């Protein structure tokens, strides 16, 4: 494909790599300089302690492999993009985000840092108070402000042009890349994977991503596995595997691996007195490999095949081109280069000297263009960033055209164009008609998850042409009861499909893989490149991905402050097959911890919906798909026998407002009256038990003729349909607390929560309630293979516990006497014991419980 492909390894290149080698020298110099220099940025005078930063932060060792890769990619793309339009839609993902100094150096050279953080582009607000102009001053700012409190971070981040992967928590790279290339037909995601990163569970399963992505209708990932052999403090597993083992492994995983051994102690190009990078051979080999890979990718795209997708295994020295050894210890090609070598350069003169020698070895001053000292010229050049010149022409010539640069790819940043492919959303009444028929209150059998299935099916249908929607699920589409989507869309599978396999095709847009981590990585990659996706999973195992959600929130929070990033759809998760009803599985499948986790984040970007029934589920879904830049979780049960508590109108209001008193289940209040007791339900099963508890209480008072006593207190039912994570600095958080405080007033409160009780407690505390006036119940780790009622009894959230609390509280308030209290409590206990006896004998809840209806 290249116009001048080099012939043989030993042959002298027909390419002129002189510019590339210089480009690479800049990348490596600027990478290193970012750790150390606060002044004398280009070593124009002898290096002194006063030039060295007070804190030496960052990661050197991992930066150099990616630097080599970046320089080569630019070289290759610049040669080929003009003649081959298929090579213009390319993004770059850096798995080990700590290798950021190199990426940052490249972004400066590509002028994309100047585009976003220079003074030139008036449309883009510079979030920094220093300019990154494309001149020495701008480059000095890049070096100086690396890893500083108000400057650049030490890892790739949302402030990094072209990045949508933070890479701090390792392992996401391939999954993110997979999400990005899905339904982006022409996209090629070049993805650098670290060999330490490759030991993580997420990455280990992500090699399989290509089995869900046919390369004809989707883009393709080109993995470049940077095998530098070391992690933080020792060798990597992959670093000590033989080439045969590596080849066998990756062939088995479905790739065609090409190994490039560029290590100084094993390859024939080593030259310890000079950078081996100054020789042509390693560059010829890399260009040959890139050409082979891109050619093969474009070939495979014609058939959609993904078996045998090319990948490069780049074996390089960790800390490549850096200090070789110090005080008898090997630094380059060893884990000791991982962070900042010569970390005592500020206090140890010998280390300072060694640092100076090392930095000088790149001869940075030879690389600047000759006319940059002409200050008049400089001012003129600043006006037009693309025409500015800082380095020698042969270096600047390597940078691809602006719109084809990996860092400026419009799938990732908006650049003034519409990146977010808006979703057409269903008309809810159409969905209700299909699933519920009559949406008025009804004690019939309605499954919220059936409704979810129909809703998502409708979303697939409406967005068929735009191909901007996917569902990600760990093998649970059927199990979570959303199989209605298969009437519209299939599961993706790019391996052999047997005649008896169901709902599966090479083109499906439902991704079912039993790796929650890889799925969420795919989902975030899909979303951050402008599309929409739901992750549907068992509640108990959603916790597997909590740290991924935490990381995503950090990304969102920073991205939301950067105007050139543009909007993205929300990260939508449905947690179902919840712990309260776990008929097939029992104790191991009972864990609402994901709710605690997301609600404990200090942010106003996280909402968790707890719709009380199927109709409310519809309204919650509508909110989720229409929201932007947020994290939404929907928590709802999947069983069929759920009543409808509310009219459509009440439901809509209930979801809109996040909490409402439901009059049907509450005592009527006269003007200026307030509730003495409020029973609060959060979650479908828990709310039902509250309502049943109120009903049971009313019957009890009736049974014993306690008419006067019953009239003497007002009992209300509050349903909370949405909890948001709290941000102490946010108005929204204060509003919620105020509203809750107003509703509950001075009432005594009993609250039944779907998750762990302590998570809900905080909201009442924030609302100003005294903790002794609020009794919060929830999942207290009691469970097993048992019935729904028994789960409530075990966790003290049952209707009997509601009634018992009412009776106790009335006694405390002196509204009933001791005698009444005692016989009511005896009655409650007796009824509960009868139910337990029934369950023990028949293994199901009694008919009385199963057929219970409010007030009937
Ligand atoms: C999931 C996760 N576990 C642990 C770490 C801590 N950590 C940071 S860098 C690193 C070693 C990474 O090795 P590699 O991916 O090979 O990166 P490189 O050698 O290229 O720097 C580790 C363990 C992390 N960032 N993420």
From TrEMBL:
Domain Xylulose 5-phosphate/Fructose 6-phosphate phosphoketolase N-terminal: 18-380
GO molecular function: phosphoketolase activity
Residue ranges annotated for the Xylulose 5-phosphate/Fructose 6-phosphate phosphoketolase C-terminal domain, each copy included: 642-853
Necessary cofactors: thiamine diphosphate
InterPro entries in the cross-refs: THDP-binding, Transketo_C/PFOR_II, Xul5P/Fru6P_PKetolase, Xul5P/Fru6P_PKetolase_C, Xul5P/Fru6P_PKetolase_CS, Xul5P/Fru6P_PKetolase_N
Claim: Lyase is one of the keywords in the record: yes
Enzyme Commission code: 4.1.2.9
Pfam families: XFP, XFP_C, XFP_N
Keywords: Lyase, Thiamine pyrophosphate
A Gene Ontology biological process term: carbohydrate metabolic process
Record-stated family: Belongs to the XFP family.
Protein name: Xylulose-5-phosphate phosphoketolase
Organism: bioreactor metagenome
């Amino acid at each position: 494909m290249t116009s001048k492909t080099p012939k043989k390894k030993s042959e002298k290149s027909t390419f002129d790599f002189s510019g590339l080698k210089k480009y690479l020298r800049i990348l490596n110099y600027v990478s290193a300089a970012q750790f150390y220099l606060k002044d004398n940025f280009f070593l124009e005078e002898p290096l002194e302690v006063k030039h060295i930063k007070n804190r030496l932060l960052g990661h050197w060792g991992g930066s150099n492999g990616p630097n080599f890769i970046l320089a080569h990619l630019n070289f290759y793309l610049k040669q080929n993009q003009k003649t081959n339009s298929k090579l213009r839609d390319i993004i770059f993902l850096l798995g080990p985000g700590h290798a950021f100094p190199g990426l940052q150096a490249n972004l400066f050279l590509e002028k994309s840092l100047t585009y976003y953080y220079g003074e030139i582009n008036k449309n883009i607000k510079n979030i920094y108070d220093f300019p990154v102009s494309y001149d020495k001053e701008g480059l000095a700012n890049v070096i100086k402000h690396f890893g500083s409190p108000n400057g650049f971070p030490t890892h790739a981040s949302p402030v990094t042009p072209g990045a949508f992967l933070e890479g701090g928590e390792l392992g996401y790279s391939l999954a993110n890349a997979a999400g990005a290339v899905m339904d982006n037909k022409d996209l090629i995601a070049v993805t650098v994977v670290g060999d330490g990163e490759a030991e993580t569970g997420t990455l280990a399963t992500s090699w399989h991503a290509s089995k869900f992505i046919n390369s004809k209708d989707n883009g393709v990932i080109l993995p470049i596995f940077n095998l530098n052999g070391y992690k933080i403090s020792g060798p990597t597993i992959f670093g000590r595997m033989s080439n045969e083992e590596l080849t066998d492994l990756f062939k088995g995983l479905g790739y065609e691996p090409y190994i490039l051994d560029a290590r100084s102690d094993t390859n024939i190009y080593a030259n310890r007195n000079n950078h081996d990078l100054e020789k042509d051979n390693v560059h010829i080999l890399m260009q040959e490999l890139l050409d082979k890979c891109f050619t093969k990718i474009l070939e495979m795209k014609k058939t959609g095949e993904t078996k045998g997708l090319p990948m490069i295994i780049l074996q390089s020295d960790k800390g490549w081109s850096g200090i070789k050894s110090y005080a008898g210890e090997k630094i380059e090609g060893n884990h000791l280069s991982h962070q900042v070598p010569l970390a005592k350069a500020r206090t140890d003169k010998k280390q300072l000297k060694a640092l100076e020698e090392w930095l000088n070895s790149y001869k940075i001053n030879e690389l600047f263009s000759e006319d940059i000292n002409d200050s008049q010229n400089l001012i003129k050049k600043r006006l037009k960033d693309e025409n500015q010149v800082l380095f020698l022409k042969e270096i600047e010539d390597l940078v691809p055209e602006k719109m084809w640069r990996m860092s400026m790819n419009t799938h990732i940043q908006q650049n003034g164009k519409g990146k977010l492919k808006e979703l057409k959303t269903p008309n809810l009444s159409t969905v209700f008609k299909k699933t519920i028929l009559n949406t008025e209150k009804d004690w019939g059998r309605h499954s919220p998850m059936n409704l979810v299935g129909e809703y998502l099916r409708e979303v697939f249908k409406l967005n068929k042409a735009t191909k901007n929607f996917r569902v990600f699920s760990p093998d649970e589409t059927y199990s979570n009861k959303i199989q209605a989507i298969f009437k519209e869309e299939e599961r993706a599978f790019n391996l052999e499909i047997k005649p008896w396999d169901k709902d599966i095709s090479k083109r499906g847009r439902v991704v079912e893989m039993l790796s929650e981590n890889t799925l969420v990585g795919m989902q975030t990659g899909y979303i951050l490149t402008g599309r929409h996706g739901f992750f549907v999973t068992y509640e108990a195992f959603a916790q597997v991905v909590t740290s991924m959600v935490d990381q995503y929130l950090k990304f969102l929070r920073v991205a939301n402050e950067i105007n050139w990033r543009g909007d993205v759809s929300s990260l939508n998760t449905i947690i179902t097959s919840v712990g309260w009803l776990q008929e097939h599985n029992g104790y191991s499948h009972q864990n609402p911890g994901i709710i605690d986790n997301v609600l404990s984040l200090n942010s106003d970007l996280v909402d968790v919906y707890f719709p009380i029934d199927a109709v409310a589920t519809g309204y919650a879904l509508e909110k989720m798909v229409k929201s932007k830049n947020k994290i939404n979780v929907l928590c709802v049960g999947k069983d069929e026998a759920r009543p409808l508590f509310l009219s459509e109108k009440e439901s809509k209001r209930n979801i809109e407002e996040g909490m409402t008193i439901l009059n049907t289940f509450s005592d009527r209040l006269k003007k200026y009256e307030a509730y003495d007791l409020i029973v609060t339900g959060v979650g479908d099963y828990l709310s039902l038990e509250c309502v049943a508890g109120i009903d049971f209480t009313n019957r009890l008072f009736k049974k014993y003729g306690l008419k006067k006593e019953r009239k003497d207190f007002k009992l209300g039912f509050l349903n909370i349909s949405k909890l948001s994570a709290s941000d102490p600095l946010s108005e929204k958080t204060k509003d919620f607390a105020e509203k809750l405080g107003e509703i509950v007033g001075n009432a005594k409160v009993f609250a039944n929560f779907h998750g762990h009780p302590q998570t809900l407690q905080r909201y009442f505390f924030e609302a100003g309630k005294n903790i002794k006036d609020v009794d919060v119940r929830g999942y207290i780790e009691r469970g097993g293979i048992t019935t729904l009622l028994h789960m409530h009894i075990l966790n003290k959230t049952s209707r009997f516990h509601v009634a018992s609390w009412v009776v106790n509280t009335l006694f405390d308030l002196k509204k009933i006497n001791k005698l009444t209290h005692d016989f009511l409590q005896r009655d409650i206990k007796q009824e509960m014991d009868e139910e337990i006896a029934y369950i023990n004998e028949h293994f199901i809840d009694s008919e009385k419980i199963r057929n219970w209806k409010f007030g009937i």
